[in-house]
Amino acid sequence: MAEQSEVNEQCCTLPPFKSDYVPVGKRFTLQIEGQDDLEVYETGDPDAKQALVAIHDIFGLHSNTLQGADYLAQLRGYRIVIPDFFRGKGWDINDIPPKAGRPALNAWVQEVGSWEKVQPGLIATVENARRLGAASIGAYGFCFGAKKLVQGAHLKLFKCMGFIHPTNFQPEDADNVDVPIALLPSQGEDPKAMDAFYGKIQTKPIADASVRQDFLDVHHGFASARSNWADPKLANRAREAYQVLDAFFQRNL
């Protein structure tokens, strides 16, 4: 699959909300052959048989993203792991909009977040979850992370996948997807692209098990780094998104 790495307009213009949230999970390190060690955030029940692998947005392991994972883990007792594919060097939260312009951000994402760099760590994270007893593994991704999940769909690592305010989805991204999906677009995504992608999903045997719920009253990133849990409306919509994911995973894991 072609490396479609461009980010959308709101991703280039809206900075993440700063937060003093203290995540309740822990961190551990995986060794990846040919790459630097991979730090992974873990939250939820470490003995859970249902595990979720989450892929962050361009800001890496931002506290708002981790707060969402903590919330989702508490809903049903999942074990959730979020590998830090940027090795602690996500995009600078103070450089939005990018001082060097949108092309600089696009180039950075294509370089540090290429599928070739993400794939080994993603496979290692899944293999580690299986070693630790996970019997059923799903995944969800935000923005950049959602794109990585569709790029890796051919590996068949997950029983089901959730895509929350995905970046730069193309209709053909659905071609290799053969497990149930949850699509949660915000106002920041191209509605024609969302319709075309989900339209292709609806032609597949996974159609009845898949779900789409639009969050068009909130901005791109509202459930990850650009979430604001101190704002009642945004916090409520973020919780609703995670509740949609919870119901979806319960049906399909």
TrEMBL record:
Membrane spanning residue stretches: none
InterPro entries: AB_hydrolase_fold, Dienelactn_hydro
Record-annotated Dienelactone hydrolase domain positions: 46-251
Alphabetical list of Pfam families matching this protein: DLH
Molecular-function GO term, any one: hydrolase activity
Protein name: Alpha/beta-hydrolase
